[in-house]
Amino acid sequence: MRHFFLLLILPLTLLAHMSIAVSYPYIGAITKSIGGEHIDTVVLAKGNWDPHFVIPRPSLIAKMRSADALIMNGAQLEIGWLPPLINRAANPKTQPNAKSFLNLSQHIELIHKPKDVDRSGGDVHPDGNPHFHLAPENILILAKTIEEFLISLDVEHKEVYEKNYAAFHIEWSKNIELWKNKMAKHEGQKVIQFHDNLAYFNNAYGLKTIGTIEPLPGIPPSSKHTIELIKLINEQKPSCILHDVYHSTKTAEFISEKTGVKIILMPHDIGSLESTQDLKSLFDYLTGALQ
Ligand SMILES: [Zn+2]
Fold it and tell me: What is the 29 CA–ligand 1 centroid distance (Å)?
């Protein structure tokens, strides 16, 4: 009888993975690369959704309820949707003060911190630009942060996480060199964006955002601002409008008609487009999109 129970318990123990909820697909991909077979990731938002405005559906609450840990982007990117999910799930392991809670933004130097913290203008990014994962160098910092986080939760598999991180670091560093070479010819190029999703990407490769279709982050286009932007484009001749996949391209098309500037869709996460199904293909796409 005792053997029977042992046989029953053993496979259950082997299957006992840590289930880690993450807000966005890119976090899931890094976490899986480092955690390997010892973890399962539960990705809350889809890559083709607007990362600022996720609907806290009941299915997401259920996912949060069964998680052993939570990793978020932070810098207020999830401010509109993750806090309500955390509250409703009432899971002690995914509360901001838990040791199983990780806010990635606290490990990255944010850029574009507004000088004026008054939010009356509607700026959705009062802590600085939160789209830091689109600089390939930052992915290495995030991977290291996640490695240390996983070790803090599961020291038993420390060596596995260290080994996985080392392998990730070697592979990703090779890619960084390839992407740098690919993007060298675009250095100094002026671009327009809808929203400054690519602040860190553009910094990494010397692209210069001279204007956004939004008058302020999170504020929809206005005719006054669009007219000013058309004037700016005619004066400064940017090479293109880099547009996210989740906002309507209607205003961009209008601007394109008036100025001849072309529109290029830029995915912001894994799954934003059919062809960007992992972290490498996301950056392969981004670094190959400009002409
Ligand atoms: Zn944003």
Answer: 20
Instruction: Report the Cα–Cα distance between both ends of the chain, in Å, rounded.
Output: 70
Q: Report the separation in Å between the CA atom of 128 and the middle of ligand 1, taken as the mean of its atom positions.
A: 9
Centroid of ligand 1 to alpha carbon of 162 (angstroms): 32
What's domain 186-289's architecture? 3-Layer(aba) Sandwich (3.40)
Yes or no: say if 186 and 205 are a contact pair by the CB < 8 Å rule.
yes
- Looking at residues 132-155, what average pLDDT do you find? 98
Strand, coil or helix: 243: strand
Choices 3.10.20.340, 3.40.50.1980, 1.25.40.10, 3.40.50.1820: CATH for 15-105+120-177: 3.40.50.1980
Q: From ligand 1's centre to the CA of 131, what distance in Å?
A: 6
Distance (angstroms) between ligand 1 centre and the Cα of 272 equals 15
Are the CB atoms for 124 and 218 separated by under 8 Å? yes
Q: How far is the CA of 244 from the centre of ligand 1 (A)?
A: 11
Q: Residue 229 has what pLDDT?
A: 98
pLDDT tens digits, residue range 50-75? 999 999 899 999 999 999 999 999 99
Task: Between 102 and 291, name the one with better pLDDT.
Answer: 102
Q: In angstroms, rounded to a whole number, what is the distance separating the alpha carbons of residues 70 and 23?
A: 8
The pTM of this model reads: 0.93
The pLDDT of 141-147, averaged and rounded, is 98
Task: Determine the pLDDT at residue 124.
Answer: 76
CA 54 to ligand 1 centroid distance, Å: 13
Determine the distance separating the centroid of ligand 1 and the alpha carbon of 264, expressed in angstroms. 18
